[in-house]
Protein: Alpha/beta hydrolase fold-3 domain-containing protein
Amino acid sequence: MKGCVPIHALRRPGHKRLIDYLPKHSQRLYSYKSHDRVNVRCGSSGHVSIDLMNIAEQPNSPLFIHLPSSPSNGSHPASIPRFLQGKPIASINYRWNTFGRPTAYVDHLWPSPVHDTFFAYKWLVENLAPEGLKRRDIYVYGSHLGASLATSLALTESQPHKPFAVRGLVSYNGIYNWTMFFPDHPVNRPGKYARNPSSYYRPLEGTYIHRLQQNLPTFFQSTADLFDVFASPSLFFHNPGVKIPSSYHLSEQESDAIEALTNPNAEVDPPMKTPRRSRLIFPPRKSTLKLPETLLLYDLLPMLPPANMPGRPRSRRQWGNSLEMQANELAEMMQSSIEKVELKDRGLWDDEITLLENEQSRRVNVRQAGEENRMMVMGERGEKLVQEWLTERMSS
Structure:
């Protein structure tokens, strides 16, 4: 594998652009025709590395930005899904603590990963843009932890007037609203006729959602970070209707009870009013942003037979915070924005607006990819859905 490209040389006046600098390798590495790694400075916060694959061989093809399921800190690129192999890829090795690693770093907490992502994107746009007025599309793909970053990047960099910008997003098993992990989020509360109205949804032990919930302090510096719209891109479109809690894992009622036991003589502050859940306008009406073509994929939990009826599987219907709920909420928010803001405003001047009657469902798709697995790998059904989605858009 070739070593890191010397960025200082690329920035000297008179030097060729990166796309002219990269050599065409004869040997194949991980099925790539070429592979180079560059290190991009992130202000005073160190560097983020980008793995560039098949870039020199396909300078005019759409660029695929890959944000892997979890940070990759080794010398090899992160695993690339089959539907991206052979395409020009820029895989961003964002820095973010994750579970399963013995050491957590303070400087790898939120917001480090979003800063890494946007510094890397800025570098890619500056160095891989086509010459002159030629247009080149960018598609963003992210899964699991990388899906949150991919989505916030796509939503804020989809600018149709720019010749080299994001045109589409594919996101798999993403978390788009981290506030759903709080017990007091409305999605985790039972109905008003529940036997125990103070109960709340707890994810099944061993599932991906459960592992994330157990490790929230590994990812974020405080509970307030989960309200950051770049961590929770669904919050670009709405206020979640949740107060910032003092605990990641306890309800407000549980926190108050513990406080009363440990400090019985402490003064009790009057309860803060829970903010109302409300819609927000995104993209802003005066911006040049446009919601991108989007495919949101999610896995369901495997079907399990109940203990008293071994031969009959349980229903897969899920309530509370789940990968399905995360994808459906974001899809509904995006579709509503297209219908009630973008198309409504366009109808003021476009006489042919009726031709776009189903634009929101055409542009934003949400589909089940398969069943959740421990390997966090997309199955054949999901890969087929992505391949069909890409073929339809890249051939039009």
Summary: Strands lie at 35-41, 47-53, 63-67, 89-93, 136-143, 164-172, 238-239, 278-279, 293-300, 364-371.
